[in-house]
From TrEMBL:
This is NAD(P)-binding protein. The keyword NADP applies. InterPro entries: NAD(P)-bd_dom_sf, Sc_DH/Rdtase_CS, SDR_fam. Keywords: NADP, Oxidoreductase. Belongs to the short-chain dehydrogenases/reductases (SDR) family. Gene3D superfamilies: NAD(P)-binding Rossmann-like Domain. GO terms for biological process: fatty acid biosynthetic process. It holds the Pfam family adh_short. GO terms for molecular function: oxidoreductase activity, acting on the CH-OH group of donors, NAD or NADP as acceptor; quinone binding. It comes from the Eukaryota.
Length: 268
């Protein structure tokens, strides 16, 4: 049997990241999930389907310890100790076929009332950590530029980096200036990196969700005015964003895609 492909998902313990993990797991992917909270990470693993697990393949799903130190989540940078924290079972796990940069925190405060340290934290977690982690994984060749057949029966497959941005990074929004700036940065990061490394056989894409039903948007979803401003009349579901991630992983011509999933809100 061909070796299952390996997806590394940051922010994979809840919300959109968890929905992506669940869908990829159902498709037979090996998973590495990164999160800042061990309990959330353990809870996330318990939701993954186990139909593919067997005594001969006990490590189909892999969870790291929560990454809580500055090496990953802040701008102090990454070094060789980051790789050691993965605790991969063998060398095969170091080949990452799909990287999903989904870790993020939200904001709800006017710009002038947002503390400087809060602005830094939002940008660090939402943007800088994604850039540093991606740079680390590329430089250490965890993500290798290639397009190959894992088995004779398989189609050629090139690895992909999928960044999760936000409609606020394109449209703007009240009370979310730092958040919007960080998500706009993710779109710029995608476009520039796609131009720089595309010829190496590595694809880079972005999903741009609108308002999605997660624990981060519970209060917002109660607003009938906000829901009515969305042409589809509702918030999106995490599973609908996960569908887009799987499409971008599978479609070998998907490169430099900026994929809106906002229920039509960007058209208003």
């Amino acid at each position: 049997m061909p070796t299952p492909r390996h997806a590394l998902i940051t922010g994979g313990s809840r919300g959109i990241g968890l929905a992506i993990a669940q869908l990829f797991a159902s498709q037979g992917y090996r998973l590495t999930l990164l999160a800042r909270n061990n309990r959330n990470l353990e809870d996330a693993l318990s939701t993954l389907p186990t139909s593919h697990l067997s005594s001969s393949s006990p490590h189909r799903y892999i969870a790291t310890h929560a990454i809580t130190n500055d090496k990953f989540w802040t701008t102090s940078g990454l070094d060789d100790t980051f790789g050691a924290q993965y605790e991969f079972e063998d060398a095969k796990e170091k080949n990452i076929d799909v990287l999903v940069n989904c870790a993020g925190i939200s904001q709800s405060s006017s710009f002038v009332r947002t503390k400087g340290e809060d602005i830094k934290e939002i940008v660090d977690i939402n943007l800088t950590a994604a850039m540093l982690a991606t740079r680390f994984l590329l430089s250490k060749r965890y993500i290798k530029g290639r397009s190959f057949k894992a088995a004779e029966t398989e189609e050629p497959f090139s690895p992909t980096i999928i960044n999760v941005a936000s409609l606020l990074g394109m449209k703007g929004g009240v009370g979310a200036v730092a958040y919007a700036a960080s998500k706009a940065g993710m779109i710029g990061f995608t476009r520039a990196l796609a131009a720089e490394i595309g010829r190496s056989g590595i694809r880079v894409n972005t999903i741009v969700p609108g308002y999605v039903s997660t624990d981060m948007t519970t209060d917002l979803e109660r607003s009938s005015d906000l829901r009515s401003s969305i042409p589809m009349g509702r918030f999106g579901k995490p599973e609908e964003i996960a569908d887009a991630a799987l499409f971008l992983a599978r479609n070998q011509y998907a490169h430099n895609c900026i994929l809106n999933l906002d229920g039509g809100l960007s058209a208003t």
